[in-house]
Amino acid sequence: MKQAIVARADLGMGRGKLAAQVAHASLSAYEDTDDRTRSQWKGSGQKKIVLKANGESKLFELADAAEREGLPHAIIRDAGHTQLDPGTVTALAVGPGPEDAVNRVTGDLSLY
Fold it and tell me: Which domain of life is it from (predicted)?
């Protein structure tokens, strides 16, 4: 079981902003996960990885791929209180779900 969080590298978010967006994505996708998968993921150490992508369109492309794989996923839009304009798409979480399925969606991305 694994979760991948993809954050936009093209926005120049500060470390704290990036951490907050990754946390929002992780929790949002987790909340949309069925109880059995949640339990398996939690019991196996909550494996997660943070990856980078450039551009809003890439995140939506990956979200579509996650949908086709039947994986929980969540797109995050910033509230606009600090560094970014309101509604800016910042991150996507894919999973938790089977590691092979998550890798089919995000396996070609680089670590953040």
Answer: Archaea
